[in-house]
Amino acid sequence: MEFAIGLRRDVGGGVITIAEFADSMAKLAGLLVIQINQKITDKAIDIRANSILGPNKKIKLPDAIVLATAESDGRYMVTRDVMGYTSPLMRIPYQLSDKGIVDLKLAKPR
Questions:
Q1: Rounded to the nearest 10 degrees, what angle do helices 61-72 and 38-53 cross at?
Q2: Of 18, 65, 96, 97, which residue is most buried, by most CB within 10 angstroms?
Q3: Cα angle at 59 between 44 and 105, to 5 degrees?
Q4: Beta strand extents in 1-110 (DSSP E only)
Q5: Which of 47, 72, 44, 69 is nearest to 57 (CA)?
Q6: How many CB atoms lie within 10 A of CB 73?
Q7: Tens digits of residue pLDDT in 75-96
Q8: Which pLDDT does position 12 carry in this prediction?
Q9: Are strands 95-97 and 90-91 parallel, antiparallel or unpaired?
């Protein structure tokens, strides 16, 4: 869903065609889709509850689910949204400023 919303932003907030959407989705065909399971649910509850009880920014449930999905399987979470929660598995690829992209972190070749 977030991807489709981004597509609409890219075309000036207008409506994209079915063909444009299908073409964009085809580019994502090789991505792994992870279904929410009990382990992810429990982790998301912990993340959300700790954010509500803590002094920092409260994490929204969708953000908690995304982070829990990464953490429950030991995967990296790449985001530019620093949600007020830190995790050793979070990666922030770059920051935006009035001068453009700054603090670009390129992936190291394997």
A1: 130
A2: 65
A3: 95
A4: 77-78, 90-91, 95-97, 100-102
A5: 47
A6: 13
A7: 888 887 766 667 888 888 777 7
A8: 55
A9: unpaired
